[in-house]
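Repro case for the chain-ordering regression, as requested:
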Amino acid sequence: MAPIWLSLVTDLNTTHPLNSGAEVLSTHTPALFAAAVDRAAERLRQGDVVVVPTETVYGLAANAWNSEAVRRIFTLKGRSAENPVIVHVASGAMARECAAEWPEVADRLGSAFWPGPLTLVVPKGPRIPEEVTAGGPTVGIRWPSHPFMQALIRACGFPLAAPSANLSNAVSPTQAEHVRAGMGDRVGLIVDGGASNVGIESTVVDVTVTPACVLRPGMISAAAVAGIVGAGSGEGAPSVVGKGPLGPLRSPGQLARHYAPKARLWIGHWRDERHLRAQLRRDGVDLSKAHVIAHQVIPGMDAAARICVIPADPEAYARALYAEWHRCDELGASTIVMEAVPRAPEWSAIADRLARASARA
Ligand code: TXA
Ligand code: MG
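-- result from build under test --
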């Protein structure tokens, strides 16, 4: 156990005692929070890229009006220039500043779910540089609920372009430590706002098409979106990923393999430990390097190198999922054995992430 003085010393410092190159700022007291807002805003004004907490996943943020700063995000992440980034705002007025027009359905969806884990794709406004939208005519806008993001965007006075703060194709970070481990040597400042409360990326809804189209499922379900979209103007329910009136790759969140841990993912059901072991043996999984993530039928400790229990309700499951994947990778799992999740609407965003992570590259 760490001696008590160690945690006291940590609390007295504004920075974490982590050695990775990046400065990590805590926010867990009002004074630290305010200092972190000031420091992050100062860097962002200078055109720097800063790692920020959001309620979905951590983001790699830059001034959305500044094309050079946005280009830096792409370089740091190793992201393809064809993949647009989401712009984060802290008011309805700021959202409109980013858009050429504000469809009525965007108004209704914004009123229903903002601030929160919903991104609306609308026609791009003239102030948004091409870099943000990958040259396209639309821009994804989100008003996040995380108090640090709200305070930071207000302090800056400009919107923040931010993809998830991971290297391209890696699992999104839901804790500052994930970012530090994944790209701490590439960024100057990481703000630690605690573990992300939603845990998976926002629902992306394209409102430039009729009916609106869910490009990426998230914890705001397609059914919840449909409830709002269908409630006005007789538009009908939104179409869902892959079924929209869209060509391929309208949202690279639709790529088959995305959000994947380094370990191979095995997904299945089991009645008990014997049943699980038999299936893993059949599939040639090395049990000595397999980590099991279970939420319903918890196998005994002999089934694999490590057994993790993850909550069985979808919200808590989503909150925990990426941290479990990060942990398995960190511990050198060769296979992550996931218990399949229920086929129910409230699980569909999670099922989507599991399917993508297990898809072969
Ligand atoms: O929850 C989130 O959305 C997080 C946090 C940081 O806000 N951000 C995030 O960003 O997940 P990223 O870049 O990892 O994923 C953004 C997704 C990508 O699939 C991208 O293609 C899509 O949103 N996207 C962004 N702008 C778009 C646009 N104009 N049209 C279609 N898809 C867009
Ligand atoms: Mg991402």
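Ordering looks correct now. The first strand starts at residue 23 and ends at 26.
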